Protein backbone atom coordinates (compact mmCIF):
# COMPACT_ATOMS: atom_id res chain seq x y z
CA UNK A 1 0.00 0.00 0.00
CA UNK A 2 2.82 2.41 0.79
CA UNK A 3 4.34 1.71 -2.64
CA UNK A 4 1.08 2.74 -4.25
CA UNK A 5 0.95 5.95 -2.23
CA UNK A 6 4.56 6.68 -3.16
CA UNK A 7 3.65 6.15 -6.81
CA UNK A 8 0.75 8.59 -6.38
CA UNK A 9 3.03 11.29 -5.04
CA UNK A 10 5.71 10.73 -7.69
CA UNK A 11 3.15 10.79 -10.51
CA UNK A 12 1.58 13.98 -9.19
CA UNK A 13 5.01 15.65 -9.06
CA UNK A 14 5.83 14.52 -12.62
CA UNK A 15 2.46 15.70 -13.95
CA UNK A 16 2.88 19.01 -12.09
CA UNK A 17 6.27 19.49 -13.74
CA UNK A 18 4.75 18.79 -17.15
CA UNK A 19 1.72 20.93 -16.35
CA UNK A 20 3.96 23.87 -15.52
CA UNK A 21 5.00 23.90 -19.17
CA UNK A 22 1.38 24.51 -20.17
CA UNK A 23 -0.15 26.47 -17.27
CA UNK A 24 2.97 27.91 -15.66
CA UNK A 25 3.68 27.98 -11.94
CA UNK A 26 0.04 28.55 -10.84
CA UNK A 27 -1.05 25.49 -12.80
CA UNK A 28 1.72 23.36 -11.33
CA UNK A 29 0.68 24.50 -7.85
CA UNK A 30 -2.93 23.53 -8.56
CA UNK A 31 -1.90 20.11 -9.86
CA UNK A 32 0.16 19.53 -6.72
CA UNK A 33 -2.66 20.70 -4.46
CA UNK A 34 -5.23 18.48 -6.16
CA UNK A 35 -2.96 15.45 -6.14
CA UNK A 36 -1.81 15.90 -2.56
CA UNK A 37 -5.40 16.40 -1.39
CA UNK A 38 -5.92 12.79 -2.47
CA UNK A 39 -2.48 11.35 -1.66
CA UNK A 40 -2.02 12.65 1.90
CA UNK A 41 -5.22 10.99 3.20
CA UNK A 42 -4.05 7.80 1.47
CA UNK A 43 -0.78 7.92 3.41
CA UNK A 44 -2.72 8.09 6.66
CA UNK A 45 -5.01 5.28 5.51
CA UNK A 46 -2.04 3.08 4.57
CA UNK A 47 -0.40 3.64 7.96
CA UNK A 48 -3.65 2.81 9.75
CA UNK A 49 -4.00 -0.43 7.77
CA UNK A 50 -0.36 -1.35 8.35
CA UNK A 51 -0.87 -0.97 12.08
CA UNK A 52 -4.19 -2.85 12.01
CA UNK A 53 -2.63 -5.70 10.02
CA UNK A 54 -1.02 -7.00 13.20
CA UNK A 55 -4.41 -7.35 14.90
CA UNK A 56 -7.30 -9.77 14.50
CA UNK A 57 -9.30 -9.91 11.28
CA UNK A 58 -12.27 -8.21 12.94
CA UNK A 59 -10.09 -5.35 14.11
CA UNK A 60 -8.62 -5.09 10.61
CA UNK A 61 -12.07 -4.85 9.01
CA UNK A 62 -13.12 -2.20 11.53
CA UNK A 63 -9.90 -0.25 10.90
CA UNK A 64 -10.44 -0.54 7.15
CA UNK A 65 -13.97 0.82 7.30
CA UNK A 66 -13.04 3.61 9.71
CA UNK A 67 -9.93 4.44 7.70
CA UNK A 68 -11.83 4.56 4.42
CA UNK A 69 -14.42 6.90 5.92
CA UNK A 70 -11.72 9.15 7.38
CA UNK A 71 -9.80 9.12 4.10
CA UNK A 72 -12.84 10.22 2.12
CA UNK A 73 -13.77 12.87 4.70
CA UNK A 74 -10.22 14.25 4.83
CA UNK A 75 -9.97 14.30 1.02
CA UNK A 76 -13.25 16.18 0.79
CA UNK A 77 -12.15 18.61 3.51
CA UNK A 78 -8.81 19.24 1.76
CA UNK A 79 -10.49 19.91 -1.57
CA UNK A 80 -13.03 22.23 0.04
CA UNK A 81 -10.23 24.10 1.83
CA UNK A 82 -8.29 24.48 -1.43
CA UNK A 83 -11.33 25.88 -3.20
CA UNK A 84 -12.31 28.14 -0.29
CA UNK A 85 -8.98 29.63 0.74
CA UNK A 86 -6.55 29.20 -2.12
CA UNK A 87 -8.88 29.74 -5.09
CA UNK A 88 -7.34 27.58 -7.82
CA UNK A 89 -6.01 29.57 -10.76
CA UNK A 90 -6.73 26.70 -13.14
CA UNK A 91 -9.58 24.32 -12.34
CA UNK A 92 -8.40 22.00 -15.10
CA UNK A 93 -5.03 21.69 -13.40
CA UNK A 94 -6.64 20.97 -10.02
CA UNK A 95 -8.78 18.25 -11.59
CA UNK A 96 -5.75 16.85 -13.41
CA UNK A 97 -3.94 16.50 -10.08
CA UNK A 98 -6.94 14.71 -8.56
CA UNK A 99 -7.29 12.38 -11.55
CA UNK A 100 -3.57 11.61 -11.54
CA UNK A 101 -3.59 10.68 -7.86
CA UNK A 102 -6.73 8.57 -8.21
CA UNK A 103 -5.39 6.63 -11.20
CA UNK A 104 -2.06 5.69 -9.62
CA UNK A 105 -3.44 2.55 -7.90
CA UNK A 106 -4.70 1.33 -11.27
CA UNK A 107 -1.28 1.86 -12.82
CA UNK A 108 0.28 -0.07 -9.94
CA UNK A 109 -2.17 -2.94 -10.47
CA UNK A 110 -1.50 -3.00 -14.23
CA UNK A 111 2.26 -3.01 -13.74
CA UNK A 112 1.94 -5.80 -11.16
CA UNK A 113 -0.20 -7.83 -13.56
CA UNK A 114 2.29 -7.32 -16.39
CA UNK A 115 5.16 -8.28 -14.08
CA UNK A 116 3.36 -11.45 -13.00
CA UNK A 117 2.64 -12.38 -16.64
CA UNK A 118 6.30 -11.94 -17.58
CA UNK A 119 7.39 -14.06 -14.62
CA UNK A 120 4.85 -16.74 -15.54
CA UNK A 121 6.20 -16.88 -19.09
CA UNK A 122 9.71 -17.28 -17.70
CA UNK A 123 8.59 -19.86 -15.14
CA UNK A 124 9.52 -17.67 -12.17
CA UNK A 125 7.34 -17.67 -9.04
CA UNK A 126 6.38 -14.08 -8.22
CA UNK A 127 5.33 -12.63 -4.90
CA UNK A 128 1.60 -11.86 -5.08
CA UNK A 129 1.15 -10.55 -1.55
CA UNK A 130 -0.51 -7.14 -1.35
CA UNK A 131 1.92 -4.30 -0.88
CA UNK A 132 4.99 -6.31 -1.83
Describe the structure in your own words.
By secondary structure, the chain is mostly helical. It has two domains: 1-87, no CATH class; 90-131. Helix content is 86%, strand content 0%. The protein has helices spanning 2-52, 57-86, 91-122. Helix 1 (2-52) crosses helix 2 and helix 1 packs across helix 3. The model has no long low-confidence stretch (mean pLDDT 87).
Topology:
Layout: H1 2-52, H2 57-86, H3 91-122
Cα-to-Cα separation, first versus last residue:
8 Å
Return Rg in Å.
17 Å
Order of helices and strands: HHH
Percent of residues in helical segments? over 70%
Q: Which residue ranges are poorly predicted, with pLDDT under 50 across at least 5 consecutive positions? A: none
Beta-strand percent range = under 5%
Oligomeric form of this entry? single chain
Annotation field: number of helices: 3
Number of domains: 2
Membrane topology: Multi-pass membrane protein
Protein name: ATP synthase F0, I subunit
Transmembrane segments: 7-25, 31-50, 62-83, 89-109
Subcellular location: Cell membrane
Summary?
The chain is mainly α and 132 residues long.
Please name the defining characteristics of this protein.
cell membrane, ATP_synth_I, 2 domains, 132 residues, mainly alpha, transmembrane helix, flat, 86% helix, 3 helices, transmembrane, membrane
Amino acid sequence: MLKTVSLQIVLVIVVAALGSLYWGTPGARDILLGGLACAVPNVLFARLLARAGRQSSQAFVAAFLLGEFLKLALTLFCLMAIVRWLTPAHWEALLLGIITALHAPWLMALSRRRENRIHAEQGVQSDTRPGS
